[in-house]
């Protein structure tokens, strides 16, 4: 892949599946439990119309699912990165926008994480550690990209090139 200076690059589309699968399964499980409790466990007379209760649960489930899938789509379209001359820029956020600029010379490690879903989909997440990072968190995260090995090599190459040019962090 050609990394043009400043070109905005999106995460892979498979991230939509990754971000949505666990919450969708959780909402389905909760809806199924509520429906079972409402229809089969509650004694007669507690609810006047069990079919109506089941319908209300189904409608609430569909509204919740639609809202979450809408948010996930907005999150995807607002998450991108670019490789600039001296830094990696990562921008993301729907309600709270965040931009992280990581100078290549400050990169210490580029870690790859691949969940079972990511292995199935052929993607991976890159997490960039820097010298000034907090211990528990990566400075920058690219949660799902297809070309993770190529991007890792490109970041290491740019780090070495910046170091050889004498680029200082923060410049």
Write the topology of this structure.
Elements: E1 9-10, H1 14-41, H2 50-77, E2 80-83, E3 87-92, E4 98-103, E5 107-113, H3 116-121, E6 124-130, E7 140-145, H4 148-165
Antiparallel strand pairs: 1-2, 2-3, 3-4, 5-6, 6-7
Helix pairs in contact: 1-2
Question: In DSSP terms, counting alpha (H) and pi (I) runs of 4 or more, how many helices?
Answer: 4
Overall radius of gyration: 22 Å
The overall pLDDT average reads 85
Structural class: alpha+beta
How would a crystallographer describe the biggest sheet?
Answer: 4 strands, antiparallel
Shape: elongated
Low-confidence stretches are none
**N- to C-terminal distance:** 27 Å
Number of strands: 7
Please provide a written account of the structure.
With 171 residues, the protein is of the alpha+beta class. 47% of the residues lie in helices and 22% in strands. The protein is built from four helices and seven strands. It has helices at 14-41, 50-77, 116-121, 148-165, and strands spanning 9-10, 80-83, 87-92, 98-103, 107-113, 124-130, 140-145. A four-stranded antiparallel β-sheet has the order 1-2-3-4. A three-stranded antiparallel β-sheet has the order 5-6-7. A hairpin with a 3-residue loop joins strand 2 and strand 3. The longest helix is centred in the first third of the chain and has 28 residues, at 14-41. The model has no long low-confidence stretch (mean pLDDT 85).
Summarize the structure.
With 171 residues, the chain is an alpha+beta fold.
